[in-house]
Amino acid sequence: MADRKRSGGRAGNTRRTSSLVPSQMPWKQPINNDKPTEPLSLDGVQNIHNGCIRILKEVGIEFLNPESLEIFKKAGCKVTGTNVKMDEDFVMEMLKAAPAKFSITPRNEDHKIVIGGKYMSFGNVSSPPNSWDLARGKRSGTWESYVEFIKLTQFFNCIHFAGGYPVEPIDIHASVRHLDCLYEKLVLSDKVVHAYSLGKERVEDVMEMVRIAGGLSLEDFNSECHMYTNINSVSPLKHDYPMIEGAMIHARRNQAVIVTPFTLAGAMAPVTMSGAVALSLAEGLSAIALLQYINPGCPVGLGTFTSNVDMKTGAPAFGTPEYMRATQMTGQMCRFYGLPMRSSGTCAANVPDGQAMWETSNSLWAAVQSGTNMVYHAAGWLEGGLIASPEKFVMDCEVLQHIQRYFDKSIIDTSIDDIAIDTIKEVGPDGHFFGCQHTQDRYETAFYQPMISDWSNFEAWDINGGVWTAERAHKVYKEIINEFQAPEIDISIKDELAEFVSKRKSEGGAPTDF
């Protein structure tokens, strides 16, 4: 295994293969050089930190995993039953060991991503139980839909990692679902992948499959980060058994763990955003402290999923002004603690309409403003995470390309040639810039070229059928699926993956009860 050549693949598909498959920008991890929005004063940062520490020290966090409780006892924390209290010195000492930046290397090294610093990365929608598209409407997740979303994830260059299952294929039994899903993901995609922390067996199966796919020895796999998991606390104030177990397995083997509390202000957190953020930080830092005690320096990130509920119905709301501010506040606190940050592209809309796009755009631009490094659910999310939509996936990728182009330094070049004084003199007050040489030399690359936006006027749009955005996205999605080409993978690696899946299925897969 150690001598086998690492499998490669296409670094990105930028060619147009038909009139409907969009030309797109090349695969590139964006770098956000903008100064982050920091809504908190220095006193505000300290106040939220103090609140977080008081929660950890005076209230404590429930850890339902017995092994984690023994580790906390060994570390000198106060453990009473399942309640763990820790003081500021312990927490801050553990955070000192956490890296501010790390990389994750998938089977195709060209798709390596950096988590931290000014780097951003965007992932696909993950974990909805349902899917929706214009042709079939809303339905429970299926294997067919799962495969389609993996193909979209691989196709779009603005998607940098393949998160959890884009939709849960409930027609595959839960005991072996992870085996089929990861096999297909590792064959149809060569981007960074994720393991659900739902018990030891699932985590270790995925780790072994990622190791096989990368052509890595056990030592090589354990010495460098090649995958990640995301765990959620059970807000308020609790970490469950399987997620902490999976997180500890990842930490011991130097695979990344993103800790993301799910705090909805007014429901699972205080109604005030500062209170919700403080609670979220306490839940997240408690798990990160545990992982750093287990393996100092292991790659971790702190996630935010703090939003609010509709106080009339109790339904979650996303992409709200409060969500944006909570994301910015958490970004400011992540920099205070020296941790990479995860946020999400979210909306509460049920179909890919105007509401879906303004709420998702708010979420994505809040990620930019906050200095987020890893953006979950960046494409395809609907109904508060209960629906994955291929049309929404395509529409969101248009927004992601806007963000990627926005970061392009060429837009703000200020050279003499860019300021173009000679050209302005040439054109004068009575001319235009369409035909001058300065424009002719640059017109093909001067501006962002959309994938599905229609820039024609109403009459032209109407003559061409009056096709609405979601309808255009549907046609694009179907054409991408029809013309999809899987990335290259060594046949011996593919066979070994298949053999591993077959073996684990014969052994019964993973338990379905905890």
Question: What report would you give on this structure?
Answer:
By secondary structure, the chain is an alpha/beta fold. The protein has a domain at 96-409 and 494-505: Trimethylamine methyltransferase-like (TIM Barrel), CATH 3.20.20.480. 43% of the residues lie in helices and 12% in strands. It is built from 18 helices and 19 strands. It has helices at residues 42-59, 66-75, 88-97, 143-155, 177-188, 200-213, 218-223, 241-252, 273-294, 321-337, 354-370, 390-406, 416-419, 421-427, 437-440, 458-463, 469-483, 491-506, and strands at 61-63, 78-80, 83-85, 101-104, 113-116, 121-124, 130-133, 137-140, 228-231, 238-239, 256-259, 264-265, 300-303, 307-309, 316-317, 341-344, 374-379, 381-382, 387-388. Strands 6-17-16-13-11-9 form a 6-stranded parallel beta sheet. A 4-stranded mixed beta sheet has the order 2-3-1-10. Strand 4 (101-104) and strand 5 form a beta hairpin. The longest helix is centred in the middle third of the chain and has 22 residues, at 273-294. The radius of gyration is 24 Å and the shape is globular. Mean pLDDT is 95; it is low at 1-17.
